[in-house]
Amino acid sequence: CCLHFRFKLFSPFSPTHAHKPSSSDSSSYSFQEHNGQLRLPIKDQYRSSFAPEWHCSKESSVAVVLPQKPEEQKQTVELITSTEDDVDIIKVHLKPRSETKQSLRMLTDEVSQIQEVRYCLKTLREQMAARQNGHNKHPADVKVNQPSVSNHHHDPPDPHLGDGREESVKLREATRRLHAQLKEMEKRHQEERDRLEADSHTCRVRLAEQSKRLEEVEQQAEEKTQQVEELKRQLGNAEIENSVLKEKMAAAETELLQLKEKEEEEEEDTAEERCAELEEELALLRKKNHQFDDMLKSQQRKIRLMIEQLQNSRTVLQERDRAVLDLEERVAFMQAENKELRDHMEYLLAGQDPPPSSVENKPEIVYSKPLQPTSPTNKALPFIKVIEIKS
C-alpha cells in the first residue's frame, strides 16, 4: 500500500486560475470504497476567514491509498494517475502489519498538520502580495487624500498584519512540533535497531554454543559406539567359551555314565575313586559354567544399558539439530527485520521512496506442537511444524 500526496499549484496573481470551491472541497472526510482512497481537504475554520481570497488559492488534495487486495491495486493506480504537468505526487509505502490502522491515523494527522502549515503560508503570501499591490497601485491617492482623511478620523489598523503575525507564530509552532516528532521517530528507530542488533548478536552466540555442544555430543556418541562394539566382541568370545565348556561337561557326564556302567565289572575301589574324581571334575565344570552364565548376563545388561544410552544420545542430537534450525531461522528473520528497519531509516533521513517490503512473501509458522506417543515410552518424539507461505 502507498500514500499519495497530491498538490496542484496556481499563481496567486493569475486570473485564469481562479475557481470556486466545489463539492469535492468540503471539510468532511470522504472515503471511496471501490478504489480505497481517502481524501483529506482543507478545514473550514481556515477557509472561512479568508473566503475572498479563495479564487486565487492553490489547490491542495491528499489521496491516501488504503491496504487492499492484489487484484485491486492496478485499478487504484490507474484512478490516481495524474495527467497534468503541474501536479506533484509523493508516494509513501506502508508496511502491511497489524499496526497499519494506527500508522494510517498518524499519517493522516501529519497530513492535516502539513495542510494547515501550507494554507497558513499561502494566506500569508496572499496578504503580503495584496498589501504590496495596494501600495504600488495607489501611492498618489494616499498622499492627496491624507489631509482630508486626517481631518475626519484616523483609519483603523490593518487587521491582516495581526493575522500574518498569528499565522507566522502558528507556522513556527507547527515547524517545531514536526521537528520534535521527527527527532522522536529517529530516536525510536535507533533504539529499535540497537535492540534488534543485540538480539541478533545473542542469537549468534547461542548458535555457536549449540554447535560446540553438538560436536561434543557427537564425539561422545562415537566413543559409546566403540565401547558397544568392544562389548559385543567380548560377548561373542564368552559365548564361544561357554559352548566349549558345555560340550566338555556333556562329554564328562557321558564318561561318568559309562564309568557307572562299568562299575560292576571293575573293582569297587577303583570305580569309587574314578567316580569321585569325575564328580569333582563335574562340580568344577558346573561351577565354571555358572560363573560364565553370570558373566554373560552381566555383559548383556551392560549392552542393553549402552544401547539405551546410545538411543538417548541420538535423541539429544535430534533435539540439538532442531534447536539449531530454529535459531538459524530466527537469526534470518531478525536480519531481514534489521535490513527493513535500515531501509526505512534511510528513507526517513533522505526523503526517498523505501524499498518494497519482503515481509509478505516470508514464511509464517502457523503452529508447532510435539507428537503424542500412542504407547508409554521414555523416548522424546520430534515436533510438528506447519509453515504457511504466502504466494
UniProtKB/TrEMBL annotation:
Chain residue ranges for the region called Disordered: 130-166, 352-372
ATP-binding listed as a keyword: no
Coiled-coil ranges from the UniProt annotation: 168-295
Protein name (database record): Tuftelin 1b
Keywords: Coiled coil
Source superkingdom: Eukaryota
Species: Nothobranchius korthausae
A single GO BP: intracellular signal transduction
UniProt feature, compositional bias: Basic and acidic residues: 152-166
This protein's record includes keyword Transcription: no
